[in-house]
Design goal:
Layout lengths: L1 H35 L3 E10 L4 E12 L5 E2 L5 H7 L2 H19 L8 E5 L9 H13 L6 E6 H6 L1 H13 L3 E7 L16 E4 L1 H4 L6 H16 L3 E4 L5 H9 L4 E2 L10 H7 L1
Parallel strand pairs: 2-4, 4-5, 5-6, 6-7, 7-8, 8-9
Antiparallel strand pairs: 1-2, 1-9, 2-3
Helix pairs in contact: 3-4
Bound molecules: ligand C2E and magnesium ion (MG) (3 copies).
The site of one magnesium ion (MG) has 4 residues, from loops.
C-alpha cells in the first residue's frame, strides 16, 4: 500500500512537472511572436520630488497585451524571457522605445526629469546592457544624463565584482545608476559605499509599515542618511498612503513613487502631465 501511495505521489509530481514544462514551452512560443506582433507595451510610472511635489521622471515598466486579451505583468513572463534568451531582443525594444519617447518629452520637461530603465537580471555580467543603452541613446538622440539604469540589490549581491564592473561601465556612458528594491538584502548596507551609485530606491516593504513601526522608520532613516553621505538621492517605492508620503518626506527622502502618487500610465499621459 505504501508502495502504491509512493507511486501515486510520483505520478502526481510528474504531472505537475510536465504541466509546468508545457506552460513554459507555450509561453516561450507566444513570447517569441510577441515582439513581431507588437504585443509589448510600456507603461511609465511617475517619480515625484517629495519636497516640491513636482514630476521628477518616469520609470518604464513592460506590459504584454496577450492575444487572449489579458495584459500580463512582467512577473509572469520575464523569468521565461531570461531563461530562453528572449530577454535580449525584449530589452533592446524596451530601451529603444523608452528612449525615443523620452527624447520627445525633453522639450517640455524640466532639467531634472529622468527616464528610469530596469536592468534585466540575467546579463549583468556580460556587458550587453551597456551596448544596448549606447545604441538606444544613439538612435534616439537622448542625452545620457537623462537616463538612470536600475539594478536590483539582489542582482548586485549575486556577484558583487561583476556588478561593480557593469555599473562602472554604465556610468562611463554618462547615465546614472540606481539600486532597486534596496533593503531586501539589508546585509549589503555597508557595501553600498563601494558601489558607483547615484540613486537608492528603498523597497516598498520598508514603506508599508512606516507609520507605526519604529524599527522600520529607523532603518529607513539610516539608509537615507547613509545614501546622502555618499551623495546618492533616495526614492521611496510603493507609497500607498498620504501618511507614508509625509513620513518619508520628513525623514529627508528625496523622491517618491507609488500608487498613491501615480499609477503607471501610457506615453500619451506622460506628455499630458508635462
Ligand atoms: P520594480 O522595478 O521594482 O518596479 C516597481 C513595481 O512595483 C512595478 O510592478 C510597479 O507597478 C509596482 N508598484 C508601483 N507602485 C506600487 C505601489 O504603490 N504598490 C504596489 N503594491 N506596487 C507598486 P511591475 O510593473 O509589475 O514590475 C515588476 C518588476 O518587473 C519591476 O520591479 C522590474 O524589476 C521588472 N521589470 C518591469 N519592466 C521591466 C523591463 O522593461 N525590463 C526588465 N528587465 N525588468 C522589468
Ligand atoms: Mg525598477
Ligand atoms: Mg523597484
Ligand atoms: Mg520593487
Amino acid at each position: 500500500r505504501a508502495k502504491r501511495q509512493g507511486r501515486g505521489r510520483t505520478r502526481a509530481f510528474d504531472t505537475a512537472l510536465s504541466r509546468e514544462v508545457d506552460r513554459r514551452l507555450t509561453l516561450e512560443a507566444d513570447l517569441r511572436q510577441a515582439i513581431e506582433r507588437q504585443e509589448l507595451e510600456l507603461a511609465y510610472q511617475p517619480l515625484f520630488d517629495l519636497s516640491s511635489d513636482t514630476l521628477a521622471g518616469v520609470e518604464a515598466l513592460i506590459r504584454w497585451r496577450h492575444p487572449s486579451g489579458t495584459v500580463r505583468l512582467p512577473g509572469s513572463f520575464l523569468d521565461v524571457a531570461e531563461e530562453t534568451g528572449l530577454i535580449v531582443p525584449i530589452c533592446e525594444w524596451v530601451l529603444a522605445t523608452a528612449c525615443t519617447a523620452a527624447r520627445g518629452w525633453v522639450p517640455a520637461a524640466g532639467p531634472r526629469f529622468k527616464l528610469h530603465l530596469n536592468h534585466a537580471a540575467c546579463h549583468l555580467g556580460d556587458g550587453q546592457m551597456t551596448a544596448h543603452v549606447q545604441a538606444a541613446l544613439d538612435s534616439s538622440g537622448l542625452d545620457p544624463g537623462r537616463v538612470v539604469v536600475e539594478v536590483t540589490e539582489s542582482q548586485v549581491l549575486t556577484d558583487f565584482d561583476e556588478a561593480h564592473t557593469a555599473l562602472s561601465a554604465l556610468r562611463a556612458l554618462g547615465v546614472g545608476v540606481a539600486l532597486d528594491d534596496f533593503g531586501t538584502g539589508y546585509s549589503s548596507l555597508t557595501r553600498l559605499q563601494r558601489l558607483p551609485v547615484d540613486v537608492v530606491k528603498l523597497d516598498g516593504s520598508f514603506i508599508e509599515h512606516l507609520e507605526h513601526r519604529d524599527r522600520d522608520r529607523d532603518v529607513v532613516r539610516s539608509v537615507i542618511d547613509l545614501s546622502h553621505s555618499l551623495h546618492a538621492a533616495v526614492v521611496g517605492e510603493g507609497i500607498e498612503t498620504d501618511d507614508q508620503q509625509r513620513v518619508l518626506r520628513d525623514l529627508g527622502c528625496d523622491l517618491g513613487q507609488g500608487f498613491h502618487l501615480a499609477r503607471p500610465v501610457g506615453a500619451a499621459q506622460v506628455s499630458a502631465m508635462l
